[in-house]
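Sharing in case it's useful to others searching the archive later.

Someone asked me privately for the predicted structure of DUF218 domain-containing protein, so I'm posting the question and my answer publicly. Question first, with the sequence:
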Amino acid sequence: MTGAKGAGMASRRIRRRWVVRILFPVMILAAGWVGAQAWMIWTYDPGHKTVPSDAAIVLGAAVWGSEPSPVLRERIHHAVDLYRQGLVRKIIFTGGTGKGAGMAESEAAERYAGAIGVPKGDLLTESKSVITEENLRFALELGKTQGLRSYTIVSDPLHLKRSMRMAADLGMEADASAASTTVYRSWRTKVPFWLREVFFHVGYVITKPFRGP
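And my answer, the predicted structure tokens:
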């Protein structure tokens, strides 16, 4: 009995060693991959927008009551700057109604852009989306009904790596333009937003093969 028990314990120790030998390299590789994704998000730089496109797609952000939050407001300003420079012909605002908001993100953005001088005929909205992937998917569907083919995605710099990956997966002809007046500037605001983006970007990449088109 003692010999059998000792043999069993030895066998379990051997199995544990093999599990550790297999799992440890996998964990190291996974950590390295996540670290690489985090670095690419932090350093992603779309450069200055110089090539015209049919429309800017402004990714949604919070609305405070019926007014754009500072994050959304700066995205609107950047898209309007592109419009006034003649780099986009239309602006598509995205985003539905968030918790506690008085109106949809896209509607608040459209109203704000109209108030600062953009003709209503050049503003388009979709108000069904609640996440970034839906922002892009529904904007693309709307753009097709308007004969739009090329797009400039407007958001905060740390948001654009994930957004461009999603746009590519949707088959969208797009480039990116970062809001130059982003509110995420200090370490106190920038780091939490970056960590959030790492989490959602990694989650998107891992789950994408298991989801529908």
